[in-house]
Each structure stands twice: as C-alpha cells, then as structure tokens.
Specification:
The chain has one domain. The protein is mostly helical. The radius of gyration is 17 Å and the shape is rod-shaped. Helices cover 88% and strands 0% of the residues.
C-alpha cells in the first residue's frame, strides 16, 4: 500500500476504535440506569471497562502510529 493510504487507514481505524469505546461506555451507562433484571451490574462494569480501555488504547495507538509514520515520511 502507498504511504498516504496506510496513514489514512490508520487514522480512520483509530477514529473508529475511539468511537466504539464511546458507544460501549454509553451503553454501559444506559443499562446501569435502566437496571434491567438478569444483568449483573458488576460483570457489566468489569467487561465494559475492559472493552472501553481496549478500544481506547487501540485507537490511540493507531493514531499515534500514523502520526509517527507521517513525520518519518516527511
């Protein structure tokens, strides 16, 4: 792939991961507010926080790598 294409894919992937982390966080908050029966709040928080952190870290890593490649290529 061309360098510009790689940078664009990394930036868009990073943005997508950060958006997903925000959506997961919003879903956790909504479920906890609604207090749906049969859903363990503790398990929801544990898995939700792990998922949010994973998506956030991946998003930041993708964006950082694309910025590093951009500086390296310039």
């Amino acid at each position: 792939m061309k360098q510009k294409t790689k940078e664009l894919v990394l930036i868009k992937s990073g943005d997508y991961m950060l958006d997903m982390s925000k959506l997961v966080f919003g879903g956790i908050v909504l479920v906890l507010i609604m207090q749906i029966e049969g859903i363990s709040s503790l398990m929801l928080l544990v898995f939700g926080i792990i998922t949010v952190l994973l998506f956030s870290i991946l998003g930041i890593m993708f964006i950082h790598i694309s910025q590093k490649n951009k500086k390296k290529g310039a």
